[in-house]
Design goal:
By secondary structure, the chain is mainly alpha-helical. Helices cover 73% and strands 0% of the residues. It has a single domain, classed as NusB-like (N-utilizing Substance Protein B Homolog, Chain A, Orthogonal Bundle). Helix 1 packs across helix 2 and helix 5 runs antiparallel to helix 6.
Length: 143
């Protein structure tokens, strides 16, 4: 079974966010580099570009969410795990059309495919806590 365009976009996003952490490239530079990547034409390119820009503008807030729900310091996170968490925390906060379960399931699959052994367990735990916190906050705000 081939990956959906949205799944492919997420895979490219994890790679781009990883690269950004290591080399400090801007969203524009990353978008240009990935435009010619093999298989990129099968990804949801609009979703990739929208999330890449949004995530890179919001890394401080996303890091704050991660730190609030992780049992470790940011310095202890590997770049792949951080990329997956940036992506999924951004989707949880800014993509209400994507079901929460889909965000978490996709994050687990990305962590299994690209992350360190058992990093998916950490990603799942952080996202489950973040999800519960967001639900509680939305209820408190009347949403």
């Amino acid at each position: 079974m081939s990956a959906s365009p949205r799944r492919r976009a997420r895979e490219f996003l994890v790679q781009a966010l990883y690269q950004q952490q290591l080399a400090g490239h801007s969203a524009g530079e990353l978008a240009e580099q990935f435009a010619d990547a093999p298989g990129f034409n099968k990804a949801d390119e609009d979703y990739f570009h929208q999330l890449l820009r949004g995530i890179l503008l919001d890394t401080d807030s996303l890091d704050a969410v991660i730190v609030a729900h992780a049992n470790r310091d940011l310095a202890q996170l590997d770049p792949v795990g951080r990329a997956v968490l940036w992506l999924s925390c951004y989707e949880l906060a800014h993509c209400p059309s994507v079901p929460t379960r889909v965000v978490i399931d996709e994050a687990i699959e990305l962590a299994k495919a690209y992350g360190a052994t058992d990093s998916y367990r950490f990603v799942n735990a952080v996202l489950d806590k973040a999800r519960k916190n967001m639900l509680a906050r939305n209820k408190a705000e009347g949403g």
